[in-house]
Amino acid sequence: MFIYTEKEREMANKLYLSLRNGIASYPGCKRLTGISIERDNVIGLKIPNVSDDKIAQAYFDEIQNYLQGAKVLPDFAFILYSRQPRSPKLDPYCTSKVALSKHGIPSQYVSLELLDSSNTFQYAISNIALAFFVKLGGIPWSVSIGRKAPTLVLGIGSTEIEDKTSNTRRRYIGFSVCILSNGLYLDTEFFPASNSYAGFLDNMSQGLRNALNRMLKIYGNVEKVTIHISHLEKNDTVQLVKNTLRQYEQEIKTPIPFEFIRLTGDSDFMVYDLAHSGFVSEEGTVVNLSHRHSLLVTEGREEKAVWRGRKPITLELHREYSSNFLLPMQDSVEDAFRLSALNWRGFNAVTQPISLQYSKLLAAEIAKLSQVDSNICNIIQHQPSLTRTPWFI
User: Among 312, 316, 308, 259, which residue's Cα sits nearest to residue 286?
Assistant: First the structure.
């Protein structure tokens, strides 16, 4: 489905033809992803021309009306509109995404400014097609691992949803993004919204158990389970995760190694290579500060951008808990490095593991959409198709 205002029909047609047939070095969607976008399978939903203050609601209403009466729902939606700074309630993309999420339909925003800039668009179209492919459940690539069985990695993220009417923060939500260390996306587990932090911790504990039960049932041959969490998470969250892991291991009565790693996206530490003329370390350089504390350079001297005025990205990993002290920290660092090389939003690395990167992205997405519909957490939680694919990227 292509969603656009009546006056932007030519732009929508340009996007469709470019995705289908290719442009510049982009070979077309079928050759790149295997997905064929034929005209008889395309739906064009035209939004009536209204004033700027009513356009977001118009997008929501037209999408909702169409989907409620549709015999067959679309698999995907491209949303076209102008890229302008506006609040989520006035942003057609946010209102459209809420309407589509109610029916479990992933979507991709494409700005009219991007479509109007031929030079930029011809490079961006590959990323648009990549996101389209991944949001439909495709696996564009993975990374090789030296060990026989992959690690099950759960990136835990949380956010506080602000109540604009009372100017307070009262609702806490969380989730875990589940992937394998070879880059295979598995699942997303939502921790339901709570009006108290204590209630949120209870929801997180149960949600974490649910995620582990589901993942280990499917991927029972994983070498270990690694939990990634941001350095900004509260200590109470850290302690709860540790306790949950300990209790879970005892309950299942199966010795599955667990570890808990707190990651700092860009450490205050700097790693220098004194043998290099610019002292810039090579990507993948590791400095072990202790047996459970390491630095990992994820953006090194091979980068094309000039280093003057900026410093290489250094990821800091601190193992705060391990069910088996014999687990080699080196494996955990290697897993983090591999997952830092992956990005399903574009053809470039993200400098930190996607387990954490996508957890933060999902938190930001839900916090934004909640300003349009405060019930968005429950909506998404009851749409299984949205938990099986990274629709939020």
Answer: 316
CB atoms within 10 A of CB 341: 18
Average pLDDT of the residues in 284-308: 83
Domain that holds residue 126: 2-135
Residue 254 to residue 280: CA distance in whole angstroms: 45
- Mapping DSSP onto H, E and C, the string for 201-242 reads HHHHHHHHHHHHHHHHHHCCCCCCEEEEEECCCCHHHHHHHH
Q: What is the Cα–Cα distance from 302 to 101, expressed in whole angstroms?
A: 40
Contacts of 164 (CB under 8 A, 6+ apart): 371
Quick one: which H or E segment has residue 183?
A: none
Domain boundary among 109, 135, 161: 135
3-state helix, strand, coil in the chain (%, to 5): 40, 25, 40
Higher model confidence: residue 28 or residue 234? Answer: 28
Q: Give residue for tokens 């700027």.
A: 52
Contacts of 42 (CB under 8 A, 6+ apart): 1, 2, 16
Q: What's at 339, amino acid-wise? A: L
Highest-scoring range by mean pLDDT, 166-175, 272-281, 326-335: 326-335
What is the model's pTM? Answer: 0.87
27 shares its domain with 169:
no
